[in-house]
Amino acid sequence: MQEDFFGTAAKARARGVQPCPPGPADEALAAALSPHIHLGTSTWSYPGWQGLVWAGRHGEATLSKTGLTAYAVHPLLRAVGIDRGFYRPLAASEFERHAQQVPPDFRFTVKAPSLVTDALLRSEDGRGQEPNPLFLDAETALRDFIVPAYEGLGARIGALVFQLSPLTPALLAHMNEPLDRLHALLLALPKPPAGVIAVEVRNPEWLCPDLVALLRDAGARYCVGLHPKLPPLAEQLPLLRALWPGPLVVRWNLNRLHGPFGYAAAEKRYGEFGEMLDPDPDTRAELVRVIRGTAGAGLDVFVTISNKAEGSAPLSVRALAQAIVDG
């Protein structure tokens, strides 16, 4: 299978996107990492990664369609996020096309569609308008997310993540209701063929013993969301400890210096995402401890990093890999 992938990858590269040749330092880092550790970026279609991931200049549309094979050649990039299914559910055939572009030991972290993770129906500009009747609806989640992902990705599933958008004040005032809905949803999902089902939140009110209990009961994992809307990683660790042992799922979304609504500011500051402009060594050091402990226990680790975490996701992956190896 591994040889089949590299043969297919060579043919694909001859037709289009060329990977940046891996350097000896990255190859040595990759060889030193535990096979349980899957590091990657939140997606792969950034032209500004020329010289880091791509050998040449390509447009976003080209990279989105055909760049994944070149991305997966990079020795440190053993995972990637698929976020676009959050906006529109993906068919099994689309997931399968992605799976065919990566080697067998590569893993995907996939966000569930917003039609089941958003408490509000939203207008085109993203403003919440009215309650979403399909919020945490198990039948919709199965039909539009779980079944297509299981069929299309199969053994390349890392984490299927229900990233729950910020709740309305009415739901925050009665947390038992969304907790019960989430519990019922997770209990209705069949076990994945590989990887885990995980839950990421955007309100600190979720971080309570009831969440631990329902995740444990359903066999699901907590996805650590590194985002200014949540407490820092150190304050989320008690929840991880309460769910130990189990695989680790992390999505490093946004540097805390930009604040809870800072995506636009981060995008403006970081430009084409080719430089690490705002390194966050404290978060990285905390992550390293958790990753080493999890992988050292023989459990899988799935970490995806956004460009908006430090300025350039591939450079963040390299820095995190180096810190893991250095201990």
Automatic annotation (TrEMBL):
It comes from the Bacteria. Pfam families: DUF72. PANTHER family: DUF72 DOMAIN-CONTAINING PROTEIN, UNCHARACTERIZED PROTEIN YECE. This is DUF72 domain-containing protein. It comes from Pelomonas aquatica. The lineage of its organism: Bacteria, Pseudomonadati, Pseudomonadota, Betaproteobacteria, Burkholderiales.
